[in-house]
Amino acid sequence: MPYLSHLLGQRVIDSVGQTIGNIIDLAITIEEPFGGEFPPVTLLLLRAGKTELRLRSEAIIDWTAIENGNAVLLDQPRARLTVGREKEGEIYLRRDVLDKQILDMSNARLVRVNDVFLIEDGEILRAAGVDVSLRGLLRRVRLETPVTRFVKKLGVPMSRQHIPWNQVEVIRGEEGGRIISRVPTDKLSKMHPSDLANIVTQMTPTERAELIERLDDETVALALEETDDEIAADIIEALDVERAADIIEEMDPDEAADVLGELDSQEVADAILDRLDDQEDAADIKHLLSYEEGTAGALMNTDVVCLRDDLTCAQAIEKLRDEEANPEMLYYLYIEDEDGVLNGVVSLGKIVLANQSTLLKDLIEDEIISVYPDTPADECARLVAKYDLLSLPVIDLNSSLLGIVTVDDILDEMAPEEWTRTLRMQDYEE
């Protein structure tokens, strides 16, 4: 199979053996119905002396000679050749594709295109895919063969990494174009949020904006919760206020507060909060923003259900359903008395397995490990580790539940980013 790097610089010879010029680029058409999954080469850009010459591919009768180190052959003498023009829907492989980034779905990362491989379809040459491996880069500088031979002697594999063209989308840009992966939105939506966050982090602001445009609010919210707060804030600030509010509303209140707290403009943050459909959520987020960074109050999630101790197990489960409780907040269920005082905790498993007529007050563990909003994050981490907890209740001076700090929240605050990302992926895979 020929590569673009093999064709660049090669001579183009007419039917009487005269050299017309050297290939400096190839154009393909991505417009339907001519483009298809593997778009054809439709134009050659040649360097002819001091000028550039565009030649339509219909005049070519032999591509295969290139693989033998010979020139591309034409079916007409130079005098009879029709000079081509760039058409709508054509993109240049060297200018618009080489060295641009593409989304590698299998490894959830952006990679650089180092070469383009082509296939022959009768008399037509088609773009078959892109090479994102080191071999592609070495091929362009004519070092592929010696380097691969050398590393082979060392017993080191040096494979090609090809991504088929039917998984690649080319977009023309003001600066010559770039490419992104043609990945259906449903596949992006099914990616683990940490993977999507990793991809977003590698993108330029323009690329991020285009990706966000393709995704639904919930998917974006989940990804932003896993993204560095400063980057997430940049993304939110780049959106119109209505879309930003829709995304913030899908986020956990503590995560939303972290992102809004990083915005450069308090006016923008206030405008977003004013447009939330649920103003109780907006009030929760504003309350979280009032706590000092690095404290339990700043880390806690207020999206938690507190149950009365005079409910039966059956009534408790029904209340959780009615309030559409967040499953991630159900590590433990916190129980309060008629005065709103936190007086115990019980696991969801115990409620499910108990006789459904049993009162919660008969199941609770009344020895509660709790913290106040101003408790430092490192003290929260110490308590979680000491008592092997999955979440830690945050109470006020009246012992009423304000929210909970989860082990994930503490990991985000205390552990290096690469540790938390690894642990989350392990949890997801299990």
What would your notes on this structure say?
The structure is a single chain. With 430 residues, the protein is of the alpha+beta class. 37% of the residues lie in helices and 22% in strands. The chain has three domains: 4-87, PRC-barrel domain (SH3 type barrels, Roll), CATH 2.30.30; 185-290, MgtE N-terminal domain-like (MgtE N-terminal fold, Alpha Horseshoe); 299-414, CBS-domain (Roll). The protein contains 19 helices and 19 strands. Strands 1, 2, 3, 4, 5, 6 and 7 form a seven-stranded mixed sheet that branches. A three-stranded antiparallel sheet has the order 10-11-12. The two termini are 42 Å apart.
Offer a concise description of the structure.
The chain has 19 helices and 19 strands. With 430 residues, the protein is an alpha+beta fold.
What's the CATH topology name of the largest domain?
CBS-domain
Reading off the top of the CATH hierarchy, the class of the largest domain is best stated as Alpha Beta
> Total number of β-strand segments?
19
How is the main sheet built?
7 strands, mixed
Topology:
Layout: H1 4-7, E1 11-13, E2 19-29, E3 41-48, E4 51-56, E5 60-62, E6 72-74, E7 90-92, H2 93-96, E8 101-104, E9 109-112, E10 115-121, E11 124-131, H3 134-140, H4 144-153, E12 162-164, E13 168-171, E14 178-181, H5 185-190, H6 193-202, H7 205-214, H8 217-225, H9 229-238, H10 241-250, H11 253-260, H12 266-274, H13 279-289, H14 296-299, E15 306-308, H15 313-322, E16 332-336, E17 342-347, H16 348-353, H17 377-387, E18 391-395, E19 401-406, H18 407-414, H19 417-429
Helix pairs in contact: 3-4, 6-8, 8-10, 10-12, 11-13, 17-18
